[in-house]
Design goal:
Elements (H helix, E strand, L loop, with lengths): L4 H13 L3 E3 L5 E2 L5 E2 L1 E3 L8 H19 L4 E5 L4 H11 L3 E4 L12 E2 L7 E9 L3 H12 L3 E10 L3 H10 L3 E6 H10 L5 H12 L9
Parallel strand pairs: 5-6, 5-8, 8-9, 9-10
Antiparallel strand pairs: 1-4, 2-3, 6-7
Helix pairs in contact: 1-6, 2-3
Length: 215
């Protein structure tokens, strides 16, 4: 769920302004999974815009502390959330670690990079939630290191039902700065998209693996 509606709307507008989120129902994007999609989200772009990355940092910091209490550690999911996670940890004045997709094959064989003590309260920062699988692998790695994962905070979520189910099954509370519903509402209000395009985007999310432009 979103932290709050005002932040969700403002975040969506900023992401559209800097083309971190692109909407194109006529010429769909192709995801790595092979899915055809009328939306593409690349929140790494945020780091290139100081005013916007500061806004994201500030909103994350105050809402994480309000929702979860001040954590002992912020953990960023590699690679997309490392930069944002560092900014949040710096603002909160707490240590930072990051989590690799899998353990290294050499050296200390770490999956969690940084100093983490058993029993510490950790908030995981993520840039984007689709199915949630890779994000929850990071949670599992942290739990295996003895961390108490209090929850996850992400910039944006597509809101797929499979992600909702995955987070519920893993017993992880997920909060986001913005989400798909907020994006579509803002995009129509600001005339980024038409009502017909809004319908197509809504239909896509119902079954993204089977969606096609003829819907």
């Amino acid at each position: 769920m979103i932290f709050n509606k005002d932040t969700a709307s403002k975040t969506a507008e900023l992401l559209l302004q800097i083309n971190a989120i692109k909407l194109n129902s006529e010429n769909p994007f192709t995801w790595a999974s092979g899915w055809k999609s009328p939306i593409y989200c690349d929140n790494r772009v945020i780091l290139s815009f100081p005013a916007i990355r500061n806004y994201i940092r500030d909103e994350f910091s105050k809402n994480i502390e309000k929702q979860f209490g001040k954590p002992d550690v912020i953990a960023g999911v590699a690679t997309g959330a490392i930069g944002i996670g560092i900014l949040v940890a710096q603002e909160l004045g707490v240590p930072f670690v990051y989590v690799r997709p899998e353990a290294k094959k050499h050296g200390r064989l770490n999956q969690v990079e940084g100093f983490l003590q058993k029993g510490q309260n950790v908030i995981v920062v993520e840039d984007l939630i689709s199915t949630g699988n890779s994000s929850l692998l990071a949670v599992e790695a942290l739990r295996n290191e003895g961390a108490n994962v209090k929850g996850m905070a992400a910039v944006f979520s597509y809101g797929f039902q499979v992600a909702n189910d995955n987070f519920a099954n893993a017993k992880v509370d997920l909060y986001t700065l913005s989400n798909y519903e907020s994006l579509l509402e803002l995009a129509v209000a600001k005339e980024y998209i038409t009502k017909n395009e809004q319908y197509l985007l809504q239909e896509w999310r119902k079954s993204p693996s089977e969606w096609n432009i003829e819907v």
